[in-house]
Amino acid sequence: MAFTGPGILVFMTEPLRMSTLFLRTMRNDPADEDVDSAKLLVRAGFIKKEAPGIFTWLPLGLRVLNKIEAIVREEMNAAGSQEVHLPALLPKDPYEATHRWEEYGDDMFKLKDRHGAPYLLAPTHEEMFTLLAKSYFNSYKDLPVVLYQIQTKYRDEARPRAGLIRGREFIMEDSYSFTMDQTGLKQEYQRQRDAFERVYQRVGVKYVIVKSFSGPMGGSASEEFQSPLPIGEDTFALSPAGKAWNVEVLTTPRPQAIDASATPAAAKVNVGSARTIDQMLTYANKSLPRSDGRQWAASDILKNVALTILHPADQDHDNKPWREVIVVGIPGDREIDLKRVAAAFPPCDVEEASEEDLKKHPELVVGYIGPKACGPNARTGEKEHDSHVVRYFLDAHIAQGSQWYTGADEKGMDYVHLVAGRDFQSDGTLEALQVREGDMSPDGSGPLSFQRGVEIGQVFQLGLKYTKALNFTVLDQNGKPSTPWMGSYGIGVSRTLACIAEFHHDEKGLCWPMSVAPAQVHVMTMGKNAQAAQEAEKLVHQLSDAGIEVLFDDRTKVSAGVKFKDAELIGVPLEIVVGRDFVSNGTVEIRQREAGTSQSVAADQALTTVQSLITSMMPRVEDRLKR
RNA sequence: CGGGUCGUAGCGCAGCUUGGUAGCGCGCCUCGUUCGGGUCGAGGAGGCCGCGAGUUCAAAUCUCGCCGACCCGACCA
């Protein structure tokens, strides 16, 4: 392996000759791809689709993939992580212990061996890494340890799409840290997080670090690396100060309490058949003039929504999953976000209460549900009675002291001037609303905006979930068993490649960053002049001998136009044209693919020019991340 | 899993309405031509028209069923 300078890994100094390269470029976009990265990667002969979300890597694509992997390896090794390689085909048992066999559900490829024993194709490897560490390490002296692998992962996506961005077979780098305590975990988390940033900067992909929800992975703190692209499937929120959150973890600044001393006493009004927000407004604007003179708005209404929490099996419920109805009060002009609500009740899912659920709670009168029928407002202190009262939560936007027009739990009856904190209490505050543009940022820097992104990595402080479930303990200084703290960290390698292509392309084709390009230089011969062909051959060898990777278009029966078009499609960052200028005055043309610039240099100056261009075109890491 | 669009040569597509022995462009092979922006010309190879049933003298074309791909949604890191 040769090096041309810091950070450039060279795999093959033999030039890649297009006359023999296993490559066929396509003039048309494939009919079954929609995003630019997939269209171009297929057209340029980097990948070939075999089935939805499943791709073959062709020589050029594989070279880019290998480049990205090499950068990941460098950064992981530098962060003190050690590479291993686990099987992708795994027995069911370890995933039973952590309940993920069920939790992952249909998204996991499950299969049976010839004896009928259940196996799976691993979607991620927390269990296996925990068991691996457990089987060798058992002393505090062994920790901390961080292991990683770069491996093919499998997820049986309901709907693969966007080429490599949402595949069913994809390549991921996943690392796992085991430390004695939370302090150690936080240190390793930070090291991994820094390493991720360096990787993304070196491969030339944009990213935003987004505070996120750890979801089915379990654990506490988690951040996502989102590549901001309009084709992304995720939406994250950005504050004016530049901080970012996944909508599931967005918190609402506590609203200021309102002085309710002048608010009239709550009054029950007969609203007849007005059940929906619109009907309530129509009624109120006709029959209940406001003292402040303005019209009633949906935001004056406290909408009480009955939801059902889907609890997993537990001992108090005969080891069966069970359904708990709750009521959540939200402003009438807003909608519930079930995922955000569910985030408050891990590991449960939340759905709208079904008719069946509501039948069990006749006190909740559909269309007239109010706070008085539930939560602390309905409890009497009598155990038998209270066990039937549903929990009542208020959305975080509801201020103490605010007054509401809301249901009174009888057909046809509503309250006005019902004051939060004065007339009713709740069992707690929830982040229940669908977040929208203009909502206030948690960091107090102003209104939120939203952006779409592709998740190219995520880091988790898992804590003790897996180590506990799999009984991994080590002996501490006092000889006592102690459960290690765990973190897991993943980079979507193939997905990152697709994102790089999304950022670095134009209407003509791909434009690879120097660090990951399939070659650094694309040399083309033009015309039939034997001298020029000879010179091209000489230059290619010069470059190769200097450790530069060359894609050499040495095809003799291909016209200039075709060579230019192919070069643009493939997207090697530097192109050298050896042809008529060389014949007339001994110069070659050096073009920069992405910038579209070109310069003419004497043939014997080409090597030094290319060397300095390569150095100057390498993506750099920010100073704060320098090692 | 629900809704929609579509399956014809390696790739992109026409033909189907109104049944009659399958076409175009790119790519591929041969010969010539051209040689700095997908040259031009001539000749050629390549198809279980997604699969299965049915209607018919006759089905790529009509009917039914199945399978598959893609898009939207549900789902999902």
Describe the structure.
This protein is an alpha+beta fold. The chain has three domains: 59-250 and 449-502, Bira Bifunctional Protein, Domain 2 (BirA Bifunctional Protein, domain 2, 2-Layer Sandwich), CATH 3.30.930.10; 267-430, YbaK protein; 510-617, Anticodon-binding domain (Rossmann fold, 3-Layer(aba) Sandwich), CATH 3.40.50. It is built from 16 helices and 32 strands. Strands 4, 8, 9, 10, 11, 12, 13, 22 and 25 form a nine-stranded mixed β-sheet that branches. Strands 14, 15, 16, 17, 18, 19, 20 and 21 form an eight-stranded mixed β-sheet that branches. Strands 1-29-28-30-31-32 form a six-stranded mixed β-sheet, sandwiched between helices. Helix 1 packs across helix 12 (493-503). The longest helix is centred in the first third of the chain and has 22 residues, at 182-203. It is elongated, with a radius of gyration of 31 Å. Residues 1-6 have low confidence and may be disordered. The protein binds one RNA strand of 77 nucleotides through residues 24, 26-34, 43, 51-52, 106-107, 124, 155, 157-159, 161, 166, 212, 215-217, 224, 233-234, 455, 458, 490, 492, 524, 526-529, 558-566, 577, 579-581, 589.
